[in-house]
Amino acid sequence: MVYMEISLTSLEQAIQTLEQQLDHETELDPQKLNTKYLGKRGLFNELSKQIKDISPKDRKQAGKLLNALKNSLQTKLGNLQLHKAEDWVDLTFPGTLPPQGHLHPVSQAIEEISEIFKKIGFTRARYPEVDWDYYAFGSLNMPPDHPARDEWETFFVDLPADKKMGKIVLTPHTSNGQVREMERLKGKPPIRMINIARCYRRQQDVTHTQMFHQFEGLVVDQGINIQHLKGTLDYFAKEFYGPGTKSRIRPFHFQFTEPSFEVDFSCHLCHGTGLIGGEKCSFCKSGWHEVGGAGMVHPNVLKAGGIDPNKYTGFAFGWGVERTYTLKEGLNIDDIRLLYSEEMRFFEQF
Ligand code: PHE
After folding, report:
1. Which terminus of the chain, N or C, has less C-beta within 10 A?
2. Does pTM top 0.85 for this prediction?
3. Predicted local distance difference test score (pLDDT) of residue 1
4. Looking at the domain 105-127+175-347, which fold is it?
């Protein structure tokens, strides 16, 4: 039988090569490396098989060398494992993003509303949220003791009244900005204002919060009529709720507009039909949602703002941001106060 003897030197060389191979490994998974080097069919065992080809006189020495190799491999692989457990960083691994917040839904709605009106040339204005009675009521054709004031459940600030301006109030609507805007322009139209601000009313239940937001549009120029109002409402309805949405106005009464209207938008869930799949639309019930008030600016209000009502006319509208927003999202919120709670699970939905 042909007996190929392996010299101790070539075994030593093979051992060295194997050690170097481990030192320059590109495989980084300790588990896989362990199998590759020390596994049953691993490189170490392959090499050990050669011992039978070593001349008997050198076998003892070969055994020692292989033992030393095994120890060295075990140490190195063990170190790798430790390394992985302690401070192993895979720079190619996707990072964990910190949680990202977003604007409060009401702020989102305010931004969107401002943008929509900006496109048709309205200027965003902000007027005091704590203001004189005169701007909230008096200048709006509601002199002191006028019964129409009762509509607005107003908070009065407990301070002495000014002779001309009256008491200080937390504004119950954004209409206080009307005469203020006319005064700002020194009674010289054109006016195209959108006033979005906080309002306060003395009522709190599942559909009301004591603090809420309104947006108020005011347009004054020569020849402004109801068609301009209707066109503006239609434009807003389509921009905010979607192209299929319609608006309608119904006769109503406000002291500061004549004629006055209530404004409805068609329900964008049932497309104004009041029906979804043959069933009554549970969101609107009638095909329409009432959103707020509007009308042609009363001549007395124009006069209060120093504008000649024989020369100029105008329209105004105003309603709640919260309601406008929840309608858009199709949100039947059981309790509107959630919007001003700290219930993160609620806000995370938006
Ligand atoms: N200020 C009225 C309200 O709060 C709404 C309104 C604004 C009506 C402008 C007419 C014109 O109900």
Report:
1. N
2. no
3. 45
4. BirA Bifunctional Protein; domain 2 (3.30.930)
